[in-house]
Automatic annotation (TrEMBL):
Chain positions recorded as substrate binding sites: 226, 355
Residue ranges of the TM segments: none
Gene3D superfamilies: 1.10.1740.110, alpha/beta hydrolase (3.40.50.1820)
Superkingdom: Bacteria
UniProt GO molecular function: homoserine O-acetyltransferase activity
Predominant subcellular localization, coarse grouping: cytoplasm
Localisation: Cytoplasm
Pathway(s) served: Amino-acid biosynthesis; L-methionine biosynthesis via de novo pathway; O-succinyl-L-homoserine from L-homoserine: step 1/1
HAMAP family: MetX_acyltransf (MF_00296)
Entry annotation: catalytic residues: 156 (nucleophile), 321, 354
Gene: metXS
The protein's name: Homoserine O-succinyltransferase
Length: 381
């Protein structure tokens, strides 16, 4: 538990920023007001130069490290990597992690009450983009009186936010660390997201996105979406090593209930996801993934899209990640090189798949620790 682990940030109290003024969104709509929930770990130095922003992936939130109570059985989603002496060292950095707009864990989203109607936003919550998230995150930066992030770090969808930060606010981050990401989704990835969305919206309990008012949850649809997504996060090798063709009861039953261990695992993952996530949020997050394409505005020229960048980049990929394969990371690296930017690259040999960015393989940890050590030195910590 938190109190017994010297490398834990311990017990953490979430904080909230209320933004009273309107914010225009890329979709053409406006949020009149909203809240951002966030957590901080470590101490901001006197020069306010050691702040690091963590951008979360699709199912992440503000709770990246530590515990909310002594009774918590699990820490934050990136606790393996954030804490005293860890890869993202809270003895040297002031780490900020927030829940994005449209989420389900405190920041304003579909589950929130609309201030004008008193009803849940539900399907009326506007579609948000990675660019919208970065603009809202910059409001949080300003509220914390941080002139420049020492680094902005993110994996997967979080890595896309890092790229957007470097393009949109080049003077407000010194380093950009992009992990297991891509410059845009492939057609195959968009297809996976669409199947997941269709599983949700065709669930009879979805009620056009107003299921809150009916006191139900589109469990089957959200469960299927998670099962599909989880398959894409794991490599074939990892699934074969973990499950093979092992039978749950040691024999074939010649029916359509769970027989193989992998079936049982996926159903468990789907069922547990339903209890901690929101269906409307899943729709929004996957759409933000689909829409991300910083080179769209430059006619497909990613190097030109990176022209405003002043941050130094660290890009990390994993060999077993077939959803955001190393080739996609090398596209980012090549475009940065073509744009004359400073970039380091590490391709980590791995087994698990896309979810490797959440773990602590030695090559991954040592590469990031060394890079972040230099970042901390620059920040004077």
């Amino acid at each position: 538990m938190a109190a017994r682990n010297s490398q834990s940030v311990g017990l953490i109290e979430p904080q909230s920023l209320h933004v009273a003024g309107p914010m225009a969104l890329d979709c053409g709509k406006t949020l009149a007001q909203f809240d951002l929930v966030y957590e901080t770990y470590g101490t901001l130095n006197a020069a306010r130069s050691n702040a690091v922003l963590i951008c979360h992936a699709l199912s992440g939130n503000h709770h990246a490290a530590g515990y909310h109570s002594e009774e918590d059985s699990k820490p934050g989603w990136w606790d393996k990597c954030i804490g005293p002496g860890k890869m993202i060292d809270t003895d040297r950095f002031f780490v900020v992690s927030l829940a994005n707009l449209g989420g389900y864990n405190g920041s304003t989203g579909p589950h929130s009450l609309h201030p004008e109607t008193g009803r849940h936003y539900g399907p009326d919550f506007p579609v948000v983009t990675v660019g919208d998230w970065v603009r809202s995150q910059d409001l949080l930066r300003a509220s914390l009186d941080i002139e420049q992030w020492a680094a902005v770090i993110g994996g997967s969808l979080g890595g896309m936010q890092v790229m957007q930060w470097a393009i949109d606010y080049p003077d407000r981050l010194a380093h950009a660390i992009v992990i297991a990401a891509a410059p845009k989704l492939s057609a195959q990835n968009i297809a996976f997201n669409e199947i997941a969305r269709q599983a949700i919206v065709t669930d009879p309990e979805f009620h056009g996105g107003r299921y809150y008012e009916h006191g139900v949850v589109p469990r089957r649809g959200l469960m299927l979406a998670r099962m599909l997504g989880h398959i894409t996060y794991l490599s074939d090798e990892a699934m074969r090593a973990k499950f093979g063709r092992d039978l749950r009861e040691g024999r074939l039953n010649y029916g359509f209930d769970v027989e193989f261990q992998v079936e049982s695992y996926l159903r468990h993952q789907g069922a547990s996801f339903v209890d901690r996530f929101d269906a409307n949020t899943y729709l929004l997050m996957t759409k933000a993934l689909d829409y991300f394409d910083p080179a769209y505005a430059t006619g497909g020229d990613l190097a030109q899209a990176f022209a405003p960048v002043t941050a130094r980049f660290m890009v990390v990929s994993f060999t077993s990640d077939w959803r955001f394969a190393p080739e996609r990371s090398r596209e980012i690296v090549d475009a940065l090189v073509d744009a004359g930017k400073q970039v380091s690259y590490a391709e980590v040999t791995s087994d698990l798949g896309h979810d490797d960015f959440l773990l602590t393989m030695p090559h991954y940890v040592n590469s990031l620790r060394a890079y972040l050590g230099r970042v901390a030195d620059e920040a004077g910590t």
